[in-house]
Design a protein that fits this description.
single chain; 255 residues; Acetoacetate decarboxylase-like; nine-stranded mixed β-barrel
């Protein structure tokens, strides 16, 4: 039988207790969550060393998440209104490490501000890309558009339109699994790292997918989505704080 720390932590709609002071704050607003089921074996090789696909009933998921980043701030300083506020669309996978920590792995992050893209790539080794983007809302319809500028591939794009539905009063196990993620796994300086985050419980709404024309998933090296998403959700958003990675014996952050 595997040791206890090999088993994933329970899925929780609420964040674990915060450890340490926040070094990065931001808000995620007007989010559209689109998810497709995928075989874990098809994505296992795309995850950082020390992690494996996180599954629910033997299935894992590819997420396409479009939203507005709002007022990114550092070390307790007020969020930046222009450079820290921009549309973003990410392609992500779901991971769990040897300590049982569930997280996300970003395969791409399209953003419309070049300086945050450059900082994200250089300082955090995250796969940020610079894109021409827009988020527009009219009544209960939200449209997200993206066309990649740099570093490509040329022609990578997305256009998503959703109609916001009723609030989700009692999210399902799958809806919690896809949205209640309290950290990310990433490779930094040649080692796998875990970066925790915390925010209030997601306010979720049902959403109807009106339009989806995208190739960001395949541009991220993943299989093309098969059919319609199995889950489409909307959230007005949450304030978010990131804390420093946890330190293990010896003072070295581990995956």
């Amino acid at each position: 039988m595997p040791p206890p720390d090999m088993f994933p932590e329970p899925v929780s709609a609420d964040p674990p207790p915060a450890a340490g002071r926040a070094f990065l704050t931001q808000s995620w607003l007007d989010l559209a969550f689109l998810h497709w089921a995928v075989d874990p074996g098809a994505v296992a090789g795309l995850l950082p060393a020390g992690t494996r696909p996180d599954t629910l009933d033997g299935v894992t998921y590819v997420g396409l998440v479009a939203f507005r980043m709002h007022r990114v701030g550092w070390f307790g300083l007020p969020g930046v209104p222009y450079l820290g506020s921009f549309p973003e669309t990410n392609v992500r996978l779901y991971s769990v490490d040897a300590h049982g920590r569930r997280g996300v792995v970003f395969r791409s992050l399209d953003a419309s501000r070049l300086i945050p893209v450059a900082v994200g790539r250089a300082a955090f080794r995250l796969p940020y890309v610079w894109s021409r983007m827009e988020v527009r809302r009219k009544d209960d319809t939200v449209t997200y558009t993206s066309r990649r500028r740099w570093p490509g591939p040329a022609g990578a794009h997305s256009r998503i339109a959703i109609r916001i539905g009723e609030p989700v009063e009692d999210p399902s196990g799958l809806e919690h699994f896809l949205t209640a993620r309290w950290g990310m796994h990433n490779v930094f300086l040649g080692r796998s790292r875990y970066l925790p985050n915390a925010h209030p419980r997601w306010p979720l709404h049902r959403a109807e997918l009106l339009h989806c024309d995208e190739n960001l998933v395949t541009a991220a090296g993943l299989p093309a989505p098969a059919g319609d998403p199995v889950s489409v959700l909307y959230s007005p958003g949450v304030p978010v704080r990131f804390t420093r990675p946890p330190r293990r014996p010896g003072g070295v952050p581990t995956p």
